[in-house]
Amino acid sequence: RTLTGHTNTVGAVAFSPDGRTLATGSDDNTARLWDVTTGKPRRTLTGHNSSVYSVAFSPDGRTLATGSDDNTARLWDVATGKPRRTLTGHTDSVNSVAFSPDGRTLATGSSSSAVRLWDVATGKTLRALKGHNNSVYSVAFSPDGRTLATGSGDHTEQLWDVATGVSRTTLIGHTDSVNSVAFSPDGRTLATGSDDRTARLWEVATGQTLIVDKSVSSVAFSPDGRTLATGSTDNTARLWDLATGKTRRTLTGHTDSVNSVAFSPDGRTLATGSTDKTARLWDVATGKTRRTLTGHTDSVYSVAFSPDGRTLATGSFDYTARLWDVTTGKTHRTLTGHTNTVLGVAFSPDGGTLVTGSTDKTARLWDVATGKPRRTLAGHTDSVETVAFSPDDRTLATGSFDYTARLWDVTTGKTRRTLIGHTNTVLGVAFSPDGRTLATGSYDTTARLWDVTTGKTRTTLTGHTNTVEAVAFSPDGRTLATGSTDKTARLWNVVLPPPTAAIKKICQAISRDLTPEERTAYLPGQSAGPVCRSH
Predict the structure, then answer these.
(1) Domain residue spans in the chain?
(2) Same fold for the domain at 10-212 and the one at 216-493?
(3) What gap in Å lies between CA 48 and CA 68, rounded to an integer?
(4) Three-class SS of 178-194
(5) 27, 96, 253, 485: which could form a disulfide with 51 (CB 3.0–4.6 Å)?
(6) pLDDT bucket at 506, cuts 50 / 70 / 90
(7) pLDDT tens for each residue of 247-281
């Protein structure tokens, strides 16, 4: 629906708690209540003599609060559209209004830098909160009503004790006006949005920044499993200490998103590929750039080291893959043949073959020594986003925009299995170190663990709230890292089943030592029971 009726800019909107009514505030000095089902206006609220900058419903939906450029806030009866109270006391525009969770208190933020708490029943000021030195553009109560968050033109947010009116914490980090603040449902996290073009997530208890407008597009474990590398849309890569979860280094130098990261086999060098058309080699110990690899004429989407660490492969939007000498930073070979973007690259364990995946719906196998194509793998019905070799070099995994992953026989180029289960594009694939499990990440916000032998899903990992773009196993296979556009990376404990032969030996041993009655009583009730019954 398009809701028409205001005669000037509509700068504020809010839904009623039951979702049936929409409130709007306008520079035409009015607020309006609209029927969401029909799109028709229910009431026009007149009384302000200047622009209405903010609107908010009380938790029970019976009262609407409005803030105005006329330096007042007003409380309106939603059923009748009549004003209940005019709240006066601010000396400049009221930019923001918010009800406490119990509906008894209203918070207002003003261009005078003042924040006020009002008693809704009487319309009297409970407290004036002073601490900001510029306009207050946003206010929000925590879910328990004990804390008020405010965002200001002084580039800061403050957390206030509602009972005393005392500032608990000043959150510093934004470099321009903070226009919006919102608590998470559990009250532990505060989200803020700013004119500095970033959003931030803060830990309420400590005031520490958790995330700064950062989407994780790629992840990689160091060979020793102690460090995680992530690439981000904030133009940086980061090295994380897995023991503490803290950042070791932030690698800056790229001028656009970092699309891919990869450690060299010795763990001393990190490679990154970027939308700025370059790849970079970084010294992991110092965080400094060793070499910038230039030559691609479009975004570098993927990077991979050869097993001996001497060669780097890159895939690009310029339809080519390149092989680079890591020591000199010069191009060895440019691999041409794909008819669209090269999205994924991976070396075989012996280093003799490179696989590339492309938006031309194919994967290709290349002879690394000569740069010539060996085989084209066709079968996907959409772009091949990601590729990986199994540790034994016999199987290739691909993930596609056709919502499937495929397992291919490297020798014959034929599909062994098509893995069906994701409900959107498969963006990442990775084999466990023993080769028996494949991990996939998808636009459907999940990661999956698959049994390579049967092609069946072992586990679906849920928790991310947006696309899972990258997956990687730790060297010991016990941990899976996932990177997501929900601005987080996650580490998962992976419990992989022992080989079938080992299970049978255990079950046979148990069976020999038990009477038939004991078997019936013991096996179903113990952790080995379900497994043994299946054998």
Answers:
(1) 10-212, 216-493, 500-533
(2) yes
(3) 7
(4) EEEEEECCCCCEEEEEE
(5) 27
(6) low
(7) 899 999 999 889 999 999 999 999 999 999 999 99
The whole-number pLDDT of residue 193 equals 79
Give backbone dihedrals phi and psi of 137, rounded to 5 degrees, phi first.
-100, -15
Q: What is the DSSP string of 246-266?
A: EEEEEE---SS-EEEEEE-TT
Query: For 216-493, which CATH class?
Result: mainly beta
CA dist 63 and 85 (Å) reads 11
pLDDT tens track for 299-310: 999 999 999 999
φ and ψ at residue 181, rounded to 5 degrees:
-135, 145
* Lateral strand order in the sheet of 216-221: 216-221, 227-232, 237-241, 246-251
Please report the pLDDT score of residue 216 as a whole number: 63
Single pTM value for the model: 0.57
Nearest to 360 by CA among 373, 372, 343: 343
pLDDT of residue 525: 37
One-letter amino acid of 283: D
- Token output for 485: 């556009």
Pairwise CA distance, residues 30 & 83, whole Å: 12
Return the amino acid letter for 90. H
CATH top class, domain 10-212: mainly beta
Give φ, ψ of 240 to 5 degrees.
-115, 135
User: What is the distance between the alpha carbons of residues 8 and 31, in angstroms, rounded to a whole number?
Assistant: 11
Structure confidence at residue 333 as a pLDDT band (50, 70, 90):
very high
